[in-house]
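User: Okay, second chain of the day. Same drill as before: sequence in, structure tokens out.
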Amino acid sequence: MKQRILLFGWITLLLFPLPAFLFRTFKERLSFLEFIQVENIKILPIGLGLQFGIIYAFIAYLFMQAPFFDKIPTKIDKIIGELNLKIYQGIFLSLCAGVGEELLFRAGVQHYMGWWITAILFVALHGYLNPFNWRFSVYGLIVLPFILLISLAYYQFGLWFCIAAHFSYDAVLFTFMINETKSK
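Assistant: Same drill. Structure tokens below.
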């Protein structure tokens, strides 16, 4: 199971951006460097994105500790625990998700559908807006403002802010979940 999750990380990193890149390249004649916005790789937006993701992850983690979430049938922290991941593997998966998903959603989908529709679509496709599991949907309502904010921040701070925020959010939560599993 762990190997499949790590393989899915590689797929997310390498294949998720592909449809967005190909569509934008075909339609707008973008080069790969333009698509990944190399000219916008700057320390300040990346640093701000890292900070924002870390702070929001701490807030989300505090919410997830509420007894309300104990009744969710399939808790993410239990799934992560069963994978027996190492911290570096959690960081790797966070990097894959941060880069792959942000290239797909921010540089691709959002470019055509707008920030708020893309944000809702992003959260829904992750399964966090589940009409059959309202408790899990409450977690979706916790993560939705984060995704809405990074979707909106894309216009002000750029793609690399979004990648950094997404990466650090996931990395903090992975680290918490992996460490909790080891301490049990």
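DSSP finds nine helices and no strands in the chain.

User: Thanks, on to the next one.
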